[in-house]
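Write out this protein's structure.
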Amino acid sequence: MIKAQRGTKDIFGDEIATWHWIFENAKNIFQNAGFNEIKTPIFEATELFNRGVGDSTDIVNKEMYTFSVGGVEKKETSITLRPENTAGVVRSFIEHNLNRQSPPQKFWYFGPMFRYERPQAGRQRQFHQVGIELFGIKEPTADVEVIMLATDFLNSIGLNNLTVELNTLGCSKCKDGYRKSIKNILAPYLNELCNDCKIRYEKNPLRILDCKNENCQKILEKDEIKEIILKDYICDECKEHFSELKNYLDELNIRYSVNKMLVRGLDYYNRTVFEIKSEALGSQSAVCGGGRYDGLVEMLGGTSTPAIGFAMGVERLYNLVNKITPQKTDFFVVSNNTKEAIKLSQKLRQNNKSVEFDLQKRKFTKQLEKAAKTAKYAIILGDDEIKQNFYSLKNLASGEQTTIKNFEELINYYAK
C-alpha cells in the first residue's frame, strides 16, 4: 500500500467542517477590514526565499524543499515549494506594480506551506497558514490594525485569554548598533555556541537570541550578556513609533507585554515584532507571529515600501478550537422510483438545497435508515405520491410527517 508521506495528512470527513469554519471566520474578519484574498503559486524561484527570508535562517539552511527543473531553453532552474508566504506576496506586489496604487494595499491568504522538519503535534511538513500583509503605511496605525485583526480573528474561533508579546528591533540604523554590541559581548563565548549560532554570529547575530539550544540559552542568561541584550539601542523615532503602538493597544484593552528577547525567526523583520499566545490548553502557546518588514520590498527589487503582516499555523489552531459538527443535508429523497428521485433531487439542488438520493436501489427501510443519519428531512416518493403529485415530508429529528401539495410549497415550508 502506498501511504501519505511522513509529515503530511489527509483532511476529510468530520475534520473538514472545522477547517471550513476557520477559513470562513478568517474571510469574514479580514474582508470586513478591506483585505483582499490573494493566492500565490505554491512554488517560487529559490532565490526569492534565499534573499527574502534570509540565508541565516533555519528555513533556508535546513528546511526548504528545493529542486531543479529544465526550463524552456533546457537550462536548469532552481525552484522551491514555499516555506512561508510573505516573500511570495511581496514578489506579487512588485511584479504587478501595486506600489503605483494608493496605499494601503491589503491582502489575506490561506494555503499550504512546506518545510522539511520533524513532524509533531500541530506541526507537519506540509502545513497551512492563514495570514495578512499590509503595504504602504509607515505609521503605527498599521501595526495596531494588524495586531487588532489577529486578536479579533482568534477571538472569533473561540481563542480568548490572549497575550501579545511585543518588541521593537528598531530601524536598520538601530539594528546595526545592536548587532555590533551582541557580537562583541558574545565573542568570548563563540566556541561554546551551537553550530547554527556560530553561523548566525557572522550573518545575523540577533538570531542567536531566538536559539532554543540549551547551552546557548545558558550563555544568554549570563548577567553581563543579558545586560547588553536588554539595553535600549532604539533611536528616538523608533521609540516614538513603539510608544504610539502601545498607546493604541491600551485604548483597545489588548493585553500585551514587552519581551526584549523576541526577535522572530526571519531576517526581514524590523521595528515591531510580535507573537500572540493563547492559554487554550492551560499553558501559553504561540498561535500567531508577525512584524514589520519595511525593507523587504526594496530588497527584492521594488521601490521602498513600508509593510507589516502576520501568519498563523492552521494545524495549531485546529488543535486548539472546539470542533464543528458537520451539517446534515437538507433532504434525502426516499423512493423506489429512481428516475423520479433523480429528477426531484436535481430540481432541489437547482434551488440551492442540499440533497441526496439512494444510489443503490435499496428498500424503503434501508433508505430511511440512511436518511436518518445524513439528512434533516426525508422526502418520501411512493407510488401514491408520484401518481397524485404530492410529497410526504418527514422531519427526521421529531418523526413528524407532513403532506406537501407541490414543489413551491415544499420550498416555502422548508424556508419557514
